[in-house]
Structure formats: C-alpha cells, structure tokens
Amino acid sequence: MTRPHPTTAAATSPRGSHTFEQLAEPFRRGLKLHCYRMMGSISEAEDLVQETYLRAWRNFDRFEERGSFRAWLFRIATNVCLDALASRTQQRRFLPDRRFPPDDRMPDGIPADEVAWIDPYPDSELEGVLDGTPNPEARYAAREAVQLAFVAAIQQLPPRQRAALLLCDVLGWKVSEVATLLGGSTTSINSALQRARTTTERGRRQETVAGAEPDAAQKILLGRYVKAWEALDLDGFVALLKEDATYTMPPMSQWYAGRQSIRAFFKWAWKDYEGYRLLTTAANGQPAFAAYARAGEEWRAHSIQVLSLGHESVSSLTLFVRPSSPRLFSAFGLPVTLEG
C-alpha cells in the first residue's frame, strides 16, 4: 500500500477541526531554515524537513492542542537533525578558512571531497521567516543568525550545544524547555549554552551585520563589483577589497587572506576566462551574485558569490564553485546556462 504524503494526508486534529496539512504547512520555511542552521546544507535541510513532517504526521494523534503546534514541530525537527548527525562520522561542515590555513599557492583544481562543505542559503527561502517580531528572549537578530559567518561558527559546536544555542539564542526558547527536549537539568543546559556562546563568538569574524537592503554607498560598491567582474578588470576589482579581505571558494580547500594574495589568485585565474555575466541574487541575508562564465555561444554556471560588506569595501568573498555550483544554481531557482 502506498504511504500518504504527510502534508497531504487528511489526518485530523484531536478536535477534528483542522487537517495536518493546514496546521503544518505554514511552518515549512521556518523548519527548513532551522534544519539548515543545524546541518549547514540546503539539500540535507530539505530532506530533514520531509522526515520531520513524516514523524509529525505519524504522531499527530499525540499532539495536545493546549500546547504550541509550532514548538511541537520544532522539537521534532531538532530531534531529526540530532539523529542525522549521530548517524554520520562527519558532524561538522566547514568553510575553507575554518579548516585550513591561508595559502599563497595557486590551487590544483581538485576539490577536497573528504571535507563536508557549508552551502549558501537562498534569500528567497527566507521570505516570511525573518519578518516576524523577534522573540525578546533571542540573543541574535534574525538576519544576523543566517549569515554565513554565523552558520560557519555554529557548525563547529557539538550537536547538542548547537541545538541548545539555536533554540535559546535564535528562537528564544526558555532553558527549561530546551532541557526537557534535550534531556538534562537546566544547570547543564546553561553550562552548555555558555560554552557554545564562547566558542561561537570566538569563531566569528567581525563583519558588518547585513540589513534588509544595502545602503546607498554599498549599492554603488556592488555596481562597481559587477562591472569589474564583467570587464575582467583586475585593478578595479582589487580596489574594492579591504586590505585584510578574505577569499574562499568551497569545495576547494585553498583560501586567500589580504588584498595582494587575492590579487595574485585572480590574475592567475582570470586569464583562462573570456568573460563573465553576473546576475543579482541574495544569500544568507547578504548580497550575492550568480556568475556565469562564457563558453562559446553560451554562458555556463560558474559560481554563487556571497559577499560581506563594510561601508565602502568588500570584507569577505565566498565563491561556491564547481562541481557543486550547478546544484546550487538549481537551489537558487537559476538556470545553469544562459544563451547569447
């Protein structure tokens, strides 16, 4: 017998007034973001949301309507993520600068497949999730808690610490609620939270927290960035970088620190390309571009580029490149080739 899809099955609530789908579907994007923060992977997040809905549907008759249905779903999603992390040998995902020292050599083009890499997260998936009034118990602003620097930092935490930090400091749960979910006393959860906060703050780069929109000066900066890339203007591109800017390009392990090292890389890399076309997008609450490289009569997916900005310069640049870039273009709703 075919098993019904959990969000379309006509399961009824204990009061018989709502279907499971009607109750659960409005929380899908919030759950996906929570799973992404836990896992660092958009594809894993999608799979784990499906598993969350399946578990919730199977246990729907146990839901007590006097409680919060949203909190019930997030409890299930957290357990789904913890189960997934417990089943694998690699419980952490990385950006290159979290795993390797900076390099001054040119890369060999071979991806570091032994490392699990963090994915970018499309801002189109954040609509309606970051717009709500923040919980007064949350320590992080909603937009700050989706930036790449934050996601990379929390990935270095053990899974239970990661869950405690996200539930308390991002979603605003009470410590007692987290203790009930994860097991243990409120004292042990407070201790885990303190360790998690210390590790996270130590591991985060000091970057400008992105607003909903770049300011006027940053919009000019982004326009100059596009022109430099599309014209292969090395001097113009490097002039936009902070002196201590960083450049990473997962799944390659090499990364570069400082304007001169970044210049040396792009002088080497750009000589093999005829040109680029950049389309504006957004990822992790940050400015981003989808870059296409010319290949004969078409343009092929090259990279999803996520930028961190100061007021007048680019402080960090992360390019998600092949072989993962075509998959990510699809996740961003973008074609992998452009004509003309």
Automatic annotation (TrEMBL):
GO molecular function: DNA binding; sigma factor activity
Transmembrane residue ranges: none
Every RNA polymerase sigma factor 70 region 4 type domain range: 149-198
InterPro entries attached to this UniProt entry: NTF2-like_dom_sf, RNA_pol_sigma-70-like, RNA_pol_sigma-70_dom, RNA_pol_sigma-G_actinobac, RNA_pol_sigma70_ECF_CS, RNA_pol_sigma70_r2, RNA_pol_sigma70_r4_t2, RNA_pol_sigma_r2
Record-level GO BP terms: DNA-templated transcription initiation
Domain SnoaL-like: 224-296
Pfam families recorded: Sigma70_r2 (PF04542), Sigma70_r4_2 (PF08281), SnoaL_2 (PF12680)
Domain of life, per lineage: Bacteria
Keywords, ordered alphabetically: DNA-binding, Sigma factor, Transcription, Transcription regulation
Protein family membership: Belongs to the sigma-70 factor family. ECF subfamily.
NCBIfam families: PRK08241.1, sigma70-ECF, SigX5
Complex formation: Interacts transiently with the RNA polymerase catalytic core formed by RpoA, RpoB, RpoC and RpoZ (2 alpha, 1 beta, 1 beta' and 1 omega subunit) to form the RNA polymerase holoenzyme that can initiate transcription.
Name of protein: RNA polymerase sigma factor
